[in-house]
Amino acid sequence: MGDFLNIFTGGAFGGGAGAGPRPRTQPGRDALASVTIDLKTAVFGDTAHVRINTFGLCQECAGTGCQKGTQPTQCPECHGKGFAQRVVRTMLGQMMTTAPCERCEGHGTVIENPCPSCLGHGRVRTTRNVGVSIPAGIGNNTRLRLANQGEVGENGGVAGDLYVDVRISSDDTFTRDGDDLHCWIQVPMSWAVLGHDLEIDTFDGPQSVSVPAGCQPEDTVTLKNLGVTHMNGNGDRGDLVAHVVVQIPTKLSDDERSLMEQFAASHDAGASHVSQSSRPTVGAKKGFFSKLKDALR
């Protein structure tokens, strides 16, 4: 039945398998790998390395598949055509069919002396390290494509591509929101009341930060252009936003407690209830630390 169908698919009329020998070189398949980078690498970019196990070029035969000093020879069965013809009997009478040559598998040549390392395939299984250029500003779970870094094809065929999934590990100091970085700085209550200049760590090294007098809990201080590099941009970066966390003392000395009671008597004696809303109130009264700062002037 296969021969009969071949008659109507071009084989009996000079097409199909009779079009010519099939090349030995075959393209390689794509490969997939993953790499985890830290947040600093995502901010500035760098080179990471992945270890992959794929078919690589056979070094002994340089991809030819033949022993050194030899080369493929013309197939003695098909004489280099890559296909064989034969006559079959059908209900329509005798017909000439073509099919790939069984001796050379349609290549038109045979490897009489295959390479002992790759057994005539021109490639061997190998493990290798590949450098991956991480662009500045890359996002989490981004897939990068490295052309021709995948599986090497048979008998010198072009290699496939390598796709690398990039994951960004969490950082102990900073969190990322788009191209902005956020961190939380804990300051004593006295600094929030009176103001203070301090240094914080950034990916660019230590930077000076001014906590303004009367700073409220969760107020922020923004350091411009110290965030994540804009992807595919001109080198501009997002901001670093420092959130102020005011440390309220849990234990007070007698003198400290007396001072706080004096402040409460002066500023909070008339307070009978607290305000409550679903969002910050526009034009709200001064916060605790602003009032405390005023009282200490």
From TrEMBL:
The GO terms this record gives for MF are: heat shock protein binding; unfolded protein binding; zinc ion binding
Q: Name one GO cellular component term.
A: cytoplasm
Note the zinc finger regions (CR-type) by start and end residue: 45-127
**InterPro entries in the record:** DnaJ_C, HSP40/DnaJ_pept-bd, HSP_DnaJ_Cys-rich_dom, HSP_DnaJ_Cys-rich_dom_sf
In Gene Ontology terms, what is a biological process of this protein? protein refolding
Query: Could you tell me the keywords of this UniProt record?
Result: Chaperone, Metal-binding, Repeat, Zinc, Zinc-finger
Family annotation (Pfam families): DnaJ_C, DnaJ_CXXCXGXG
Q: Which domain of life is it from?
A: Bacteria
Q: Which Gene3D superfamilies match?
A: Heat shock protein DnaJ, cysteine-rich domain (2.10.230.10), Urease metallochaperone UreE, N-terminal domain (2.60.260.20)
Which part of the chain is the CR-type domain?
45-127
N-terminal signal peptide:
none
To which protein family does this belong?
A: Belongs to the DnaJ family.
What name does the UniProt record give this protein? Chaperone protein DnaJ
Which species expresses this protein natively? Answer: Bifidobacterium dentium JCVIHMP022
